[in-house]
Amino acid sequence: MTAESPSQKGGTVGKAMEVLDCVARFGQPVRFSQILEVSHFPKPTLYRLVRTLADLGMLDHDADKDTYMPGRRLLKLAHVAWAQFSLASIARPHIDRLGQQVSETIHLAQLDQGQVLYVDKRNGRDPVEMYSQAGKVGPTYCTGVGKAMLAFLTPEEQERVIALQSFHRFTPHTLVTPEALRARLETIRAQGYALDEEEHETGIICIAMPVLNGSGRVLGSVSITDTVLRTTWAALKEKLPLLRETVERIGHDAQDWHYPGI
Amino acid sequence: MTAESPSQKGGTVGKAMEVLDCVARFGQPVRFSQILEVSHFPKPTLYRLVRTLADLGMLDHDADKDTYMPGRRLLKLAHVAWAQFSLASIARPHIDRLGQQVSETIHLAQLDQGQVLYVDKRNGRDPVEMYSQAGKVGPTYCTGVGKAMLAFLTPEEQERVIALQSFHRFTPHTLVTPEALRARLETIRAQGYALDEEEHETGIICIAMPVLNGSGRVLGSVSITDTVLRTTWAALKEKLPLLRETVERIGHDAQDWHYPGI
DNA sequence: ATTTTAGTTTCATTATTTGAGACTAAATGA
DNA sequence: TCATTTAGTCTCAAATAATGAAACTAAAAT
């Protein structure tokens, strides 16, 4: 009747997905009572939702400790999602190639609801952390990949995304106002690439460039990351031509693919 | 009333997950009518489910081509699932280590509903195909990782899993009867490791060993894979001590972790 | 032995899902 | 051009499933 609001639209399925998010947000196995605390559902309702999700394999239930965590079925579904995820699959060979040319860490990201969604990663030097990035989300206003995309959106899109940012100060270098960010975006747009000057994590710097299709539409972005201990800005910027070549090739291959929303 | 059967239990949420599976099974963006063909739901019901899932981000909708595919939200959820996925996270450092010691491809797998679920992969030689495995499922009866696990289950569990196998002949070497498989499993149990002698894919061979906890319970398995063009059985079997060391270390670290079901 | 806490079940009420059929728009064909 | 098929969307009364206050159980904690 009256305009409801909580957070999510949708009926029963939407509620179930909310529960899934709740559990995922913990980042560790949780008990039913813990989910109850953070969710706004009445106890029996939540109980049934959790059980249903567990029965369906969307949550895994550890019977011993009586805890829940995101289920294996998600892994299988995400495997398919990733494999057909247009930009990731189109970009793969080019990201591979760049990975062989440079020894630094490479990220491929897209915008998703104002946030950066990492969809691929290569780890030149260390073979660690393989799966750790794809599917991860991060802030847009203080990462190289985020700013690179933001800078090349249309003014309207740009404002819409800026309005979604939280402007949390991660480091002393984080840009924490829309004004500061807008000014920086102008520079980025002018020079064609973005830098992350330890804005998200102290000691971590990167160069990033947007992936644009023929019409100049932002599809995603690619970054090369390293630490201040291992590299210098001069050395990192030497990779710009390789990075440019990579994003151009991806943009070319993704010509007629259009990005689903911002 | 009468015993229903179709496939899935569950109410509305279960149906929605069924639709998700349907879409995933295609392995490519699909139109509504294609989903309609393979699903057993009436048109308007399916329509609403698909729309709901798309609204929730579980499916991505390409408005131009009017196609659906598994959504980005799944990627985010699976990212968390994988990160806390006990065996994968416990095993990670050990798999990393093995990856540095050998140049072949390494897989970490678990059993999930009678199938092999790959949860991690390292690709020694080529940096390609990074994401392509975790979340992937495969047959148990004709892969190294599958047979290694199967051989060390209790007899009851073993029979339960064997009953779930389809025994499709992938290559001339595939074992296609329960009897042949049982005989092979006995050998595997005796010698402590499993081989894949081109049973799943011609030209691909591997050695695999189960990850067991202190009580001898199967938690998963690890394999080292190569092609017949690049290696010989003698060369591959030389890696057995490294493999044994790896699975023992994982088993040790996973001591009190108990595997969720078979 | 008593109280508290965490998980589970019940069941009448309520809200959502259901699906035959109707409708629209666009593509196909004669 | 106009009929015809096809793909997608909408409607609404009927059928069904979800809801949640309250009660219950089991196991800790006091």
TrEMBL record, chains A, B:
Residues 73-256 form the IclR-ED domain. One of its GO terms (molecular function) is DNA binding. Keywords: DNA-binding, Transcription, Transcription regulation. GO terms for biological process: negative regulation of DNA-templated transcription. Residues 10-72 form the HTH iclR-type domain. InterPro entries: GAF-like_dom_sf, HTH_MetabolicPath_Reg, Tscrpt_reg_IclR_C, Tscrpt_reg_IclR_N, WH-like_DNA-bd_sf, WH_DNA-bd_sf. It comes from the Bacteria. Pfam families: HTH_IclR, IclR_C. The keyword Transcription applies. PANTHER family: HELIX-TURN-HELIX TRANSCRIPTIONAL REGULATOR, ICLR FAMILY, HTH-TYPE TRANSCRIPTIONAL REPRESSOR ALLR. This is IclR family transcriptional regulator.
